[in-house]
Write a structure and sequence with these properties.
By secondary structure, the chain is of the alpha/beta class. The protein has 16 helices and 15 strands. The radius of gyration is 23 Å and the shape is globular.
Length: about 450
């Protein structure tokens, strides 16, 4: 493993610096901690942004940790070919303080290494130090040979939020504007119960004041950001979505029974499986004569939580646990599902931030033509998406009888499979982002020319 620049997809100038070749194309330096082959919730968004901006004429250089650092990877053998195919360049970094992010990063997690890592994580939490705090200095080191004029704009996508810090530092040194892309809220994240320190709050406000623009996944989260930080200049919604090319060859699993599928993790107490298990308990006790054979399939790392709730509701024999699987296997299951379950929050009247959470799982189900059973607060952005496209139905966490009734209706053939809405495909999502970034670059170039 090396922490130096991965120049396999970069050419060099005479002095050894990475050369961003075509000066007629706008040049984007894209900071993405979650990027293939890492298997993480934020990876698809970062990949699709890079892919479709490159197709829209951008010279994209992604700054990301070296693949050998990751514990969980997906399609590792294909990523080099995909990068070359799309014309995406890459600068790979090292990572300091790896022990702070054990869910994703390799480190010596046995013996004294395990003990030291645990102590470091406990101290970091008390001091409000992010798990990826060691990445910004690694970014600076990997990008040390870049000079003014090498890039036109910098964009950082979370998580982690420390990438925002690195974007500003690079922006100052390279004299380039920077854009912050929010996949989730930072200090107002509804799934994070630990209060942020005043230092972190002030840093977010400062970054928002200095950036050229913000992109965010939903209107509600954009409104929340404006309410918390009135000084933010521009907030633009860039939704999550699906890539038709990724889904084209997905072969649905033939379950041979009515399959209810949930793929992903949980964030107690707001994102839990409990309401669905109660609904399935009601479904099992229903007296319908022609009820088909059915099963609930769970794909993810929270098997203990799912099995515990299933046993409590007396339906553990109807639950199939697949464990942690690849993203491709997850898509196979969603494609074959009669109903795909998405849970953002089990609360009925959620906060603005709760209502703004729209996970990538919603769009994968939409792109695969799967019916969506959404458990989310009333008035949520996710509810608007599935209802405007006739892709499913939303329920509150306490509507277990209504959930069971909906499943019965689907079993009876009352809800046909939806057609994937093109509006939420990345070929449709990327052009407005392209337009925004080009406008910022043009304005910055005019400003430099006037000086």
């Amino acid at each position: 493993m090396t922490s130096d620049n991965d120049l396999t997809t970069l050419q060099k100038t005479g002095d050894g610096r990475p050369a961003l070749q075509d000066l007629n194309r706008p040049r984007l330096l894209f900071l993405a901690y979650s990027f293939p082959p890492l298997w993480a919730p934020g990876t698809p968004r970062a990949w699709y942004m890079a892919k479709y901006l490159a197709r829209l004429g951008w010279e994209v250089t992604v700054v990301t940790p070296h693949p050998s650092l990751w514990v969980r990877t997906d399609r590792t053998e294909k990523i080099e070919g995909l990068l070359q195919q799309e014309g995406i360049r890459r600068i790979t970094t090292g990572l300091r303080w790896r022990c702070l992010d054990p869910d994703y990063v390799r480190f010596r997690n046995h013996g004294i290494g395990w003990l030291v890592g645990g102590v470091c994580r406990k101290i970091a939490r008390r001091l409000s130090i992010e798990n990826q705090a060691g990445w910004p200095p690694a970014i600076e080191n990997a990008c040390r040979t870049l000079r003014r004029g090498d890039v036109d704009i910098i964009m950082a996508t979370l998580a982690p939020f420390v990438s925002f810090r690195a974007a500003r530092l690079l922006g100052k040194r390279l004299r380039a504007p920077f854009v912050l892309d929010y996949r989730d809220p930072w200090n107002s994240n509804p799934h994070v119960s630990v209060p942020r320190s005043r230092r972190i709050l002030e840093e977010e406000e400062s970054l928002l004041r200095d950036c050229a623009a913000v992109t965010i996944v939903s209107s509600s989260l954009g409104l929340s950001l404006r309410q918390h930080f009135p000084s933010v200049k521009e907030v633009h919604v860039v939704s999550n979505g699906f890539d038709p090319e990724d889904l084209y060859n997905i072969q649905p699993i033939n379950f041979n029974h009515f399959a209810i599928v949930y793929a992903g993790g949980f964030y107690p107490p707001k994102r839990v499986i409990t309401p669905l298990m109660k609904a399935l308990q009601t479904l099992r006790s229903s007296q319908h004569d022609k009820l088909p054979e059915w099963r609930f399939h769970y794909l993810g790392a929270s098997a203990g939580h799912v099995l515990g709730e299933a046993e409590r509701c007396g339906i553990h024999d109807r639950v199939v646990l697949h464990g942690q699987v690849s993203r491709e296997e997850s898509l196979f299951a969603v494609a074959g599902a009669d109903v795909s379950v998405v849970i953002t929050s089990v609360e009925d009247e959620g906060s603005l931030e709760d209502r703004g959470i729209v996970t990538g799982k919603v769009f994968e189900a939409l792109g695969l033509g799967s019916r969506v059973l959404l458990i989310a607060p009333v008035g949520s952005d996710a509810e608007a998406i599935i209802e405007e496209n006739y892709c499913g139905r939303r329920f509150a966490g306490n509507q277990t009888e209504e959930i069971a009734k909906y499943l019965l209706e689907v079993m009876a053939g009352q809800h046909p499979k939806p057609v994937p809405p093109a509006k939420y495909s990345w070929p449709e999502i990327a052009p407005p982002l392209n337009k925004l970034l080009r406008r910022i670059v043009d304005e910055h170039r005019r400003k430099l020319a006037a000086e």
